[in-house]
Design a protein that fits this description.
It is a single chain. The protein is α+β, with helices and mostly antiparallel strands. It has three domains: 3-55, Structural Genomics Hypothetical 15.5 Kd Protein In mrcA-pckA Intergenic Region, Chain A (Roll); 63-127 and 215-235, Alpha-Beta Plaits, CATH 3.30.70; 131-209, Alpha-Beta Plaits, CATH 3.30.70. 21% of the residues lie in helices and 29% in strands. The chain contains six helices and 17 strands. The chain has helices spanning 5-11, 17-25, 117-124, 144-152, 189-196, 227-235, and strands at 3-4, 29-31, 34-35, 41-42, 49-51, 54-55, 63-68, 98-100, 108-114, 132-139, 155-156, 159-160, 165-171, 175-182, 201-209, 212-213, 222-224. Strands 7, 8, 9, 10, 13, 14, 15, 16 and 17 form a nine-stranded mixed beta sheet that branches. It has a four-stranded antiparallel beta sheet with strand order 3-2-5-6, with no helix packed on it. A hairpin with a 3-residue loop joins strand 13 and strand 14. Helix 1 crosses helix 2. The two termini are 34 Å apart. The mean pLDDT is 89.
């Protein structure tokens, strides 16, 4: 099947679609020995596509759902002088994997890893508005007014955050377990908002991305997505504003 070269690179897990376009602009991609240009198409069943001289192989896609443990870094590449475990250490797969749904190191929960660059791009793109559900254990007992402020959206970095669905799951004397459902996710947003409202987050777990749930997976455990789950993810359409 003939596809644009940047799409083939993305599907093969070489790079995201945008990064693949940069590789083409840099002259690092060839098709049948000729330097590829943006817009060029190829069919891996009959054409030879190379990146930095290495032939592109027809993709064999894999899709993993991981329960990231606390203390593990959400990255595929360990930084120099950093000995902490990374999510890539937990998946026994050779080759590159994209990480979808990053979590800060102190948080745990659902992350998707795949070598399907096109689907990874789709899942990360804001226009699809995929919901993410979190369980946040916060210090103290938020008032109704505080929860309403969180629901409306708090100003972060001079920009108001999108509204968040918030409900109380359990309230005790010293802390409260909240469920938060959000489509927008800025860096450390839940922790920052909790601190601003006077209820610092003590524990944060992502339990769901769209219809995918963490289920009974213990921290560090993973499973492969079913073909039906992959089809449903690929069939999602952009959400209307």
């Amino acid at each position: 099947m003939t596809e644009r070269v940047q799409k083939l690179l993305s599907q093969a897990g070489i790079a995201s679609r945008r990064a693949a376009e940069d590789l083409i602009r840099q002259g690092r991609v060839t098709v049948n020995g000729n330097v590829a240009q943006l817009g060029d198409k190829a069919d891996l069943s009959q054409d030879t596509v190379r990146v930095d001289g290495e032939a592109l192989k027809a993709p064999g896609f894999v899709y993993y759902l991981l329960n990231k443990p606390r203390g593990v870094v959400s990255t595929n590449k360990r930084q120099p002088q950093d000995s902490r475990r990374i999510v890539r250490d937990l998946i026994p797969h050779e080759g590159h994997l994209f990480t979808v749904g990053r979590l800060d190191t102190e948080s745990e929960g659902l992350i998707i890893l795949t070598n399907d660059g096109e689907l990874a791009d789709k899942l990360m793109h804001p226009r699809y508005g995929h919901t993410k559900t979190y369980h946040a254990l916060v210090a103290g007992v938020p008032t109704t007014e505080t929860l309403d402020a969180w629901r409306r959206g708090i100003v972060l970095d001079d920009k108001k955050a999108a509204p968040v669905k918030v409900r109380v799951l359990q309230s005790r004397e010293d802390d409260t377990l909240l469920e938060l459902v959000m489509r927008e996710g800025r860096k450390r947003q839940i922790r920052r908002v909790g601190a601003m409202l006077g209820h610092p987050v003590k524990k944060l777990t992502r339990v769901k991305i769209e219809f995918l749930e963490i289920g009974h997976l213990e921290p560090g455990q993973w499973r492969e997505l079913s073909p039906a789950e992959v089809r449903q993810l690929k069939q999602d359409k952009p959400r209307k504003k």
